[in-house]
Amino acid sequence: MIRAVIIDDETNNQELISNLLKHYAAHVEVLAVADSVKSGYKAIQEHKPNLVFLDIQMPDGNGFDLLRLFDKPDFKVLFVTAHEEFAIQAFKYSALDYLLKPLSPGNLLAAVKKAEESLGHDELNLKLKTLLDNISEPSRQKRKIILKTLERIYSVDVNDIIRFESDGGYTKVYLTDGTRIMVSRILKEFDDFLSEAGFVRIHHSHLININQVYFFEKSESHLVMKDQSVVPVSNRKKDHVLELLNMI
């Protein structure tokens, strides 16, 4: 049985989550409902839940303020939010799950299942720390990103990434210190949210940090990065790359 607490300042959302869990996830027991940072903190302290459904905006602060009250949270978190682009981007960088309002049974069940299957508290705490660091850092270039391999989980400064290279269903990540990390995510997933941080898809297999480019070899149509690696540029991306480099 999963012990849950719902923290949301809207009564209809509290009731919706409770009813959906009752009808579609009977193994999740709602121990308490709260409507603010203060009451949410008290509910977590009192009931010691495994899982917290956490709204972002509340009258006396936000969900991130609540998380900062815990040195090392020993519960899993499912964020419930309206469409707030900054927060959603932060979740993606931090590899944390979130639910968009209005909720649906399918999305709720999928998120609960992922929470059940997620690894231990050390991984969760690293993800949450990365999330809170990113929320506190307005500069997109100074954010951190979670990278997972089969053996480890890394929290990496976005600025320290030179490039990504597709390798089948995996992606190789090249860092400025020479480290290479193989992650089990496809390149498109990184392309979808890192474009705002200066990353450019220059080839179907390559996503590069434009700030890590050394020079563009026009005759060969490839980039040489600051680590001396050579990356091909597709013909249809050539003009776009030249335009971006002229802006740096």
Question: In words, what does this structure look like?
Answer:
With 248 residues, the chain is of the alpha/beta class. The protein has two domains: 2-136, Response regulator (Rossmann fold), CATH 3.40.50; 141-247, LytTr DNA-binding domain (OB fold (Dihydrolipoamide Acetyltransferase, E2P), Beta Barrel). The protein contains eight helices and 17 strands. The protein has helices at residues 11-24, 37-47, 63-67, 85-94, 105-117, 121-136, 187-194, 238-247; strands at residues 2-7, 28-34, 51-55, 57-58, 61-62, 76-81, 98-100, 144-148, 153-157, 161-167, 170-175, 180-183, 199-203, 206-209, 213-217, 222-225, 230-232. The strands form five sheets. It has a five-stranded parallel beta sheet, sandwiched between helices. A five-stranded antiparallel beta sheet has the order 12-11-10-14-13, with helices on one face. Strands 15-16-17 form a three-stranded antiparallel beta sheet, with no helix packed on it. α4 runs antiparallel to α6 (121-136). The chain is elongated, with a radius of gyration of 21 Å. The termini are far apart. The mean pLDDT is 90.
